[in-house]
């Protein structure tokens, strides 16, 4: 895998202290000519062919190993957040595998976050059981793309979830006094009532950050705060 793929990490920053809370592990494909590219189309192929299972396992394993290494080098242990695809989520081996990775890498279980998309959380029947089993391992669960199926909040509420990541589409070009500001504020309020830790993703400008601060989110992620970067760079960003 190492010669064809790499993991980049994107900072998730605390709103009040601008402290690094976590970083999201994002898969990059080493393209022979174009360099590192987000493997959008190949991920789709991987998902449909079942290759996502070994690839996804490699990402979980590598991200946990690098997080422990980071901790040893920096003495700082932000959480690492890993995306789980629908196919991976339905794999019967997911829960035992994550248990093994926690054991073998020595990562603090609470420092591992698993991101599952909101649409998946709402469509998979066994979601509550699997999330419950994962939570028992001590990992934290994040809902990615939060707010896109807004009407389904009552269903989400029944699931064991710790973190919600407000979808980029709400954050894009948000302005003071705009309708999107009102929508994000409403989503954040609702999420806070349910006791979720709220991350606003896709913050690209200083102006967007100013508005997002007012909405009451706990943390932010986006190009303005930091682009996905290789682990060596993250070390520099941490120091
Ligand atoms: O689905 P998920 O939220 O995991 O998507 C993460 C993707 O979003 C990554 O490919 C990452 O590079 C991209 N991304 C991260 N921050 C921003 C941003 O500020 N703007 C845009 N357009 N994309 C972003
Ligand atoms: Mn994500």
Describe, in short, the structure shown.
With 239 residues, this protein is of the alpha/beta class. It has eleven helices and nine strands.
Question: Keyphrases for this structure?
Answer:
alpha/beta, 11 helices, binds guanosine-5'-monophosphate, binds manganese (II) ion
State the total count of DSSP E strands.
Answer: 9
Arithmetic mean of pLDDT: 90
Regions with pLDDT < 50 over 5+ consecutive residues? Answer: none
Count of helix runs: 11
Strand order of the largest sheet: 1-2-4-5-6-7-8-9
Strand fraction equals: 15-25%
Heteromolecules bound: guanosine-5'-monophosphate, manganese (II) ion
Coarse shape: globular
Let me know the largest β-sheet: 8 strands, mixed, barrel
What gyration radius follows from the Cα positions, in whole Å?
Answer: 17 Å
SSE arrangement, N to C: EEEHHEHHEHHEHEHHEHEH
Q: Helix/strand-derived class?
A: alpha/beta
End-to-end distance, in Å?
A: 29 Å
Helix content: 40-55%
């Amino acid at each position: 895998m190492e010669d064809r793929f790499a993991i980049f990490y994107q900072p998730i920053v605390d709103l009040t202290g601008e402290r690094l809370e976590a970083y999201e592990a994002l898969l990059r494909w080493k393209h022979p000519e174009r360099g590192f590219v987000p493997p959008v189309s190949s991920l789709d192929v991987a998902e449909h062919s079942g290759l996502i299972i070994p690839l996804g396992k490699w990402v979980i394993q590598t991200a946990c190993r690098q997080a422990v290494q980071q901790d040893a080098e920096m003495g700082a242990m932000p959480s690492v957040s890993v995306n789980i695809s629908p196919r991976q989520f339905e794999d019967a081996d997911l829960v035992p595998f994550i248990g093994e990775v926690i054991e073998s890498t020595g990562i603090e279980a609470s420092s591992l976050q698993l991101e599952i998309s909101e649409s998946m959380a709402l469509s998979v029947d066994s979601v509550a059981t699997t999330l419950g089993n994962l939570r028992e391992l001590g990992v934290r669960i994040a809902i990615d793309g939060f707010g896109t199926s807004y009407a389904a909040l009552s269903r989400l509420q029944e699931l064991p979830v710790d973190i919600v990541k407000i979808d980029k589409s709400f954050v894009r070009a948000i302005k003071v006094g705009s309708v999107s500001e009102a929508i994000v504020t409403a989503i954040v309020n609702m999420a806070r009532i349910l006791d979720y830790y709220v991350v606003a993703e896709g913050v690209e400008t200083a102006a967007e950050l100013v508005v997002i601060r007012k909405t009451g989110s706990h943390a932010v992620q986006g190009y303005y705060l930091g682009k996905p970067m290789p682990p060596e760079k993250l070390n520099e960003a941490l120091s």
